[in-house]
Amino acid sequence: MAKVKKSPRPKAQTPKGFRDYFGTEVTERSEMLRAIAGVYHRYGFEALESSGVETVEALGKFLPDVDRPNEGVFAWQDEDENWMALRYDLTAPLARVYAEHRNDLPLPYRRFAMGPVWRNEKPGPGRYRQFYQCDADTVGAASVAADAEICAMLSDCLEVLGIPRGDYVVRVNNRKVLNGVLEAMGVSDDAQSADVLRTIDKFDKVGEAGVRELLGKGRLDASGAYIDGVGLAPEQAEPVVAFLTSKRDSNEATLDALRDAVGESQIGAEGVDELAEMASLLAAQGYGPDRIIIDPSVVRGLGYYTGPVFEAELTFEILDEKGRKRQFGSVAGGGRYDDLVKRFTGQVVPATGVSIGVDRLLAALREKGRIGGTEQGPVVVTVMDKARMADYQAMVAELRQAGIRAEVYLGNPKNFGNQLKYADKRLSPVAVIEGGDEKERGVVQIKDLILGAKLAENATLDEWKDRPSQYEVPRGDLVKKVQEILDLYA
Amino acid sequence: MAKVKKSPRPKAQTPKGFRDYFGTEVTERSEMLRAIAGVYHRYGFEALESSGVETVEALGKFLPDVDRPNEGVFAWQDEDENWMALRYDLTAPLARVYAEHRNDLPLPYRRFAMGPVWRNEKPGPGRYRQFYQCDADTVGAASVAADAEICAMLSDCLEVLGIPRGDYVVRVNNRKVLNGVLEAMGVSDDAQSADVLRTIDKFDKVGEAGVRELLGKGRLDASGAYIDGVGLAPEQAEPVVAFLTSKRDSNEATLDALRDAVGESQIGAEGVDELAEMASLLAAQGYGPDRIIIDPSVVRGLGYYTGPVFEAELTFEILDEKGRKRQFGSVAGGGRYDDLVKRFTGQVVPATGVSIGVDRLLAALREKGRIGGTEQGPVVVTVMDKARMADYQAMVAELRQAGIRAEVYLGNPKNFGNQLKYADKRLSPVAVIEGGDEKERGVVQIKDLILGAKLAENATLDEWKDRPSQYEVPRGDLVKKVQEILDLYA
């Protein structure tokens, strides 16, 4: 199978675009996934874990944000010449699972899934070829009550993770409204619709005037390049601009503006009705516009989804790599996609769901200092006499049995300085020392390393200087004294 | 890249050898991993998560239980023609990570890792091509104190998972003792050593007499085939047989028997000393032979490891697929492997570790009925009037805010029977009903579905028949009454 390049020594590095996660990077992520799973579960969703590998034919070409076919996927042939690939998201496997097991699954089927996905794309800063997704989807429910429920659940998830109300917002839009806008414009040609969609996507950057130019003859962009326009008549641009600028202070006013934008279009009216129904269902559950709002500027994903579309955004500011303030932006998104299962079964099965970008969310919480970073290390029992390793092991066993994280120094014990350096690197709060003299007298030395570090930093520190940083206690009081020191810093 | 076979409809199935996990299969595994991670952490181990994909050259050919080179691995070429592969275990990536980050990592480095690994092998019953591993390793500690610590930790893990003392045992052996036995036999040739190792591996099946035959001229096996022997003189077999049968009632007696088996061999004596030291370190921590024993019959992995080898076995009996009693067998194994990092750096770095087979362990606990199987489903709020969906959403929101798992029925509400069938399939304990009449009177109907099912099963059931299975309560008491019913079955 694989032909290995002969080389005297392999390079110790990850493949390009992959990375390792250490310590709290791992544990903070699993705590986050666990918290989200708790919310999903409370909403009646069931866990599903499919494998990382699928047949290429089952995965299909459904990568939401690309036009490319099998590009973007890691794929290979198995021994029977069948193509297999690593999943690129958790939605394509859901469609396969649902089609395969539909006779055994409840209908509607609410499921959640979390795990790594892989993309064979050019890696960039902060962009890796393996990352986590954390999805919840409802398959088999046509009602927008299912979409509303997912928006409420997304809001609950963010709050459970420690993002207070006001620091986030879930924005909701609807693809049918856009279809209505296209109808009102008199655009029915697929290629032209796609051009209009692409233009709408640029609204953020080019603004209202820019969108008018791009829908018409074209536009000179900032770099001096001329961008060809879609070639519509000026009045045809009106419904799009009305749509993009229809956001008002209240949901009711926004809905009115949208009704104007879609004009006589029936599909457009349906979209606005769906938005209105979602708003009223959410209000009934207590999710007002302080958490979930109708916002026609949500365009990401409008090309992929078929009905409601939603996006969660963090609204607090962070500093970017150049020290400039910016909003953190989107951390989750989703919507209704009614055609995914059809590929397998021929039947249209309505489905809606959300994907939370846990890695982005972790990055946001870290930048805000809301989660840990460093964690206190274990208590280190030093080794003064190699021959008495059993004594040290007994100490560490006692500490662990009391629920205290602890370890014996297992490197070469000859140089005691190295042991303290090791404790330092491990961010240990406490070191335990028992030399021959202590052993004889039935005592141990317990060093408060946190205080020790503070004293070393600033020896004249008044508030600390009278506190001892090392204690001699009877061997029998080891656990008690260590616990006492840990409690000081808990 | 991947050439997709054109077909009108893709097959909805996993690739051969892969499977999906549903509901409690997923949550029970993550609870198990979490519990094990807690023990690993208390012992001072740090989490590490590397990606599923490595370069083929970094992975190397270290699959412990096969002689095959790159077979057994899923591999492909990336756009730069470099070979990448899915990891087949968590040890090879550890070696790469340690070599890559050694300047930043503490020494010794204790790390744990858990996640899926992939093997491109023939799938069989209960044998999948993706499965979980859950490892802890100490890199950079030459002392057998590190091995002893891992055995103690393994014992703690099993007990934390609800396997009581007596239902498991951790068996310890040492590769150096075997090397001593080979020396005592006068076998120094590598090929012959490998033959002897293979014979030892068959001890379980062929017994003492069989081993003597296989080391000598050969043996007629049960199927009538003649298996060629290693061709040693009869007296050369003595040390091997002495080694394999050296297990005694106490560790001390076993150690004495092993000393006899290795004769004058220095490496053999070293191995016996290491076993003795591990036993004494473990005894000092309170891990006696009721949990961890020296057992020379542990031969699995002896070819791969370089020093201590250990294996955890469940000793309780289960029924196999044919209803016969058998012991469940091994659920974890590990040992010392000192050469893994050397491939990258040229330096020998001592390392030791353990891998817990979580999927096997889950299977064992399920067979013993020690973990769940089925879980109670959510409370289902039924939909009597589609136009009043907001009312039902409000109910479900109240229930969730009280911490109760609940959902609204999101299928087509027309047929009420379907809603109750759905609740049944979901294993719902309670259904909530609010028709127009109830709405008017400000009440809701709450159905105790567990009691309902019991009554349906046996209508004359005396102890139940006087208990109502449906209650009418004021709408304001919804949460209180549902909680009351749930408490009955908690």
Automatic annotation (TrEMBL), chains A, B:
For this protein's source organism, the top of the classification is: Bacteria, Pseudomonadati, Pseudomonadota, Alphaproteobacteria, Rhodobacterales
- Oxidoreductase recorded as keyword: no
Q: What is its main location?
A: cytoplasm
Cellular compartments per GO CC: cytoplasm
Q: Which family does it belong to?
A: Belongs to the class-II aminoacyl-tRNA synthetase family.
Q: What is its EC number?
A: 6.1.1.21
Checking InterPro entries in the record gives:
aa-tRNA-synth_II, aa-tRNA-synth_II/BPL/LPL, Anticodon-bd, Anticodon-bd_dom_sf, His-tRNA-ligase, HisRS-like_core, HisRS/HisZ, HisRS_anticodon
Compartment(s) where it occurs, according to its Swiss-Prot or TrEMBL record:
Cytoplasm
Query: From the UniProt record, which GO molecular function terms apply?
Result: ATP binding; histidine-tRNA ligase activity
What SUPFAM superfamilies does the database record attribute to this sequence? Class II aaRS ABD-related, Class II aaRS and biotin synthetases
Group of enzyme by EC: ligase
In Swiss-Prot or TrEMBL terms, this protein is called Histidine--tRNA ligase
* Catalyzed reactions per annotation: tRNA(His) + L-histidine + ATP = L-histidyl-tRNA(His) + AMP + diphosphate + H(+)
Q: How does it assemble?
A: Homodimer.
Q: Supply the alphabetized keyword list.
A: Aminoacyl-tRNA synthetase, ATP-binding, Cytoplasm, Ligase, Nucleotide-binding, Protein biosynthesis
Q: Which organism is it from?
A: Sagittula marina
Q: Which residues bind L-histidine?
A: 89-91, 119, 133, 137, 300, 304-305
Q: Aminoacyl-transfer RNA synthetases class-II family profile domain: which residues?
A: 29-378
Biological process per Gene Ontology, one example term: histidyl-tRNA aminoacylation
